[in-house]
Amino acid sequence: MNDHNNEAAKSMSGPRKLYEFLMAASRAHAQWDMEISTNIVKNKKMMLLLLLLPILGVALVEAVPMLGGKTAYAPAFYTTNIFLVSIAIGLFAGLITGAIGAGGGFIIAPALMAAGVKGILAVGTDVFHIFAKAIMGTTVHAKLGNVSVKLALAFLVGSAAGTFIGGAINLGLYNKDPLLSEAFISTVYAVLLGFLSLYSLIDYLKARAAGLSCEDRSRQARIATTNFALQLQKVNIPPMISFDHDFVEGGKKISWLFLAIGGLIVGMLAAIMGVGGGFITFPMFVYVFGVSTATTVGTDILQIIFTAGLASIFQYAIYGYVFYTLAIGMLIGSLIGIQVGALTTKVVSGCQIRGFFALSILAGFINRASTLPKKMVELEYIEMSRPVVNAIEIGGNIVFWIVVVTFGAWVIGKFVTSIGALRREEQS
Q1: How far apart (Å, rounded) are the C-alpha atoms in residues 33 and 101?
Q2: Distance from first CA to last CA of the chain, Å, rounded?
Q3: Helix (H) or strand (E) holding 135
Q4: Are 264 and 162 in contact (CB under 8 A)?
Q5: Which residues are CB-neighbours of 59 under 8 A, at least 6 positions away?
Q6: I need a surface site. Which of 78, 94, 131, 374 has the fewest CB within 10 A?
């Protein structure tokens, strides 16, 4: 019996490690998102520009052809209702990011698709929104002290190639058949969100059953150079890139090839999923390459700017697959949501919020998975009754919005009812 349990534990170690890797990635990206948003909120000029962007955007669209143009993908310019929806989506994603410190970016593209935006346009708009946020909120000069230029360049060479490959995959599928593109993007998100929601719920339930605080269950492990990273650094494939001279006598070295391959993976994910790539860079540098966290932070900032810029502009915007008004609305909504979510954590139980987080990710999985039967029928891959597949899709959509709106209303309600306590805490 014990042998059986040990074998089961070993079989789960791979998925468990992958889950911990993805959650570390999600937390790192959320930390970046919160810092960037705080920088924008504190900058009066940036806030004024942000408030004027919707007006300027409409004026520019009417006056001159924008990148991608009006006709490339209607409605790629503006409508009042979809702009309000984009603010709501940004708000909900920001609430999750601020309250949980992880995961908000995972639901943006699925939420856009659930609101009726085509998959390729949702991905292009999401990655453009990340690029715009990075440009507006990054204080580069304060973060680049420990950046290894050679390290960054080798990684960016790979990520640049990855954005073109990932973009070509999405564009190729869309040009062949828009339904095929929708099915591909939905499948990618269904697999990712299904995996994360399963392990998030397991962690949440185990914490409740054991009487542990969710903070104890989810606390990030101490970061140390992994054995895998040490073995990777021993492989001598010239040219070797040296880094971390300030932290290790003589510094560390790693082959440019591994950095370029890592960048390739990040670039492809950014272009295929619209997540900017930043969510995976941090754990990749620390756990896979063995780079210090100080060096990783600065490199991650550069990577997000260049990778998201390349993916959004050269893979989507030039073909008209960026919905500019949506990007602006999501940026405005996320700035509000992140601030409210972060403040709410001071007055509510972390376990309660993490339970809602697991349900939100699960709802995202249900929403994307529920669209697949209809897509498969339309692509003539399977045979099912149209009323049945339509009912499955509608049901998944309803579940998603009920969970997300309930979570948002709960967090905002807690914030509003706790304003007095938050003020007293700030004064003390």
Answers
A1: 9
A2: 57
A3: helix 119-137
A4: yes
A5: none
A6: 78
Q: Which two tokens stand for residue 65?
A: 């052809």
Residue with tokens 């040490």: 230
In the predicted structure, residue 396 carries a pLDDT above the cut 80? yes
pTM of the model: 0.82
Whether the Cβ atoms of residue 307 and residue 135 lie closer than 8 Å to each other:
no
Angle between helices 419-427 and 386-417 (to 10 degrees): 50
Per-residue pLDDT of 10-28, as tens digits, reads: 444 677 777 777 777 777 7
Write out pLDDT tens, residues 35-46: 888 888 887 777
Domain positions in the chain: 2-427
Query: Would you put residue 366 in left (φ > 0), alpha (ψ -120 to 50) or beta?
Result: alpha
Q: Would you state the structure tokens that stand for residue 413, as one six-digit string?
A: 């309600």
CA distance 270 to 30: 16
DSSP helix, strand, coil percent of the chain (3-state; round to 5):
80, 0, 20
Provide the token pair at 114.
């659930």
Q: Which residues contact 292 (CB under 8 A, 6 or more apart)?
A: 146, 244, 247, 286
Average pLDDT over residues 366-381: 91
Q: What's the confidence (pLDDT) of residue 13? A: 62
Distance CA 299, CA 282 (A): 9
- Structure confidence by residue, pLDDT tens digits, 276-335: 656 678 788 888 888 877 777 767 777 788 888 888 888 888 888 888 888 888 988 888
Report the alpha-carbon distance of residue 291 to residue 403 in Å, rounded. 39
Exposure of 10 by Cβ count < 10 A (0-12 exposed, 13-18 middle, 19+ buried)? exposed
* 182/166 Cα distance (integer angstroms): 15
Contact of 283 with 25, CB cutoff 8 Å: yes
Q: Which residue has the tokens 């998975």?
A: 369
Q: Is 375 helix (H, G, I), strand (E, B) or coil?
A: helix
What is the rounded average pLDDT of the residues 368-384? 91
